[in-house]
Amino acid sequence: MSEIINRVANSALVTIDLEEYYSTSERVVFDIKDYLYQELVLREADFRKSLKELDWEEYKGKSVAVDCTADAIVPTWAFMLVVTYLEGVAKEVVVGGLDSLEQALFQKALASIPVENCVGSPVVIKGCSKFPVPLFAYGEIVKLLKGKAKSIMYGEPCSTVPIYKQPRVK
Asked: Does residue 5 register a pLDDT over 50?
C-alpha cells in the first residue's frame, strides 16, 4: 500500500485568504443629517455647538463613516470638521458611506500583504469566507499580484479557477 501524499501541501502554492484581512472593528455611521435644522439646513453656529457638546468617546475604537443621508446640501467643511473630532478617537474615519469605509479598511489591510512571498509562485485567492469581503478587495489583490505571481487562481487549492498566468519568456 502506498502512502497518500498531499500534493497541495507540498507544492509552492501560496494561498491568500482575504478574510484574514477583514477588520472586525465595529462600523458606525456619523450622520450629519441629525445635526441639520429640520434635516435640511446646516446652521453653522448650531452645528459647531452640537459637535463641541457631543461625547466623542462613544466612537472610541470604532470605524466611522461620516455621511449625510438626507437630501441636503452640506458644505465640505462640515465633513472636515466632524473628522477633526473623530480623528484620534475612532480607529478609522472615512468621509462617505459604509461602502467607502469598507473599501478604505480593505485598502489599508491589503497594503500589509507580503507580496514578496508571492513572486514567481502560483497563488490561490480563497473564495469562501464567513465575513463579507467586498468585491473591490478581489480586484485590488489581482492588481497587487499581477506581474509578480507566476499565476493567480480563485477558489480553494483543490478546485480553482484560473485568473492570470504570467507569459512565458522565449
From this structure: no
Q: Nine-digit cell at 32?
A: 450629519
Distance from the first to the final alpha carbon of the chain = 43
Give 82-118 pLDDT, tens digit per residue: 999 999 999 999 999 999 999 999 999 999 888 899 9
155 close to 161: Cβ distance less than 8 angstroms:
yes
Exposed/middle/buried for 157, CB within 10 Å: 0-12, 13-18, 19+? Answer: middle
Cell of 115: 507580496
E-strand ranges in the chain read 14-16, 27-31, 63-67, 92-95, 122-126, 151-156, 159-165
Q: Which residue has the cell 458644505?
A: 75
Report the C-alpha dihedral over residues 127, 5, 9, 155, rounded to 10 degrees: -10
pLDDT digits (tens, 9 = 90+) for 11-35: 579 999 998 988 889 999 999 999 9
142 exposure class (CB count in 10 Å sphere: 0-12, 13-18, 19+): middle
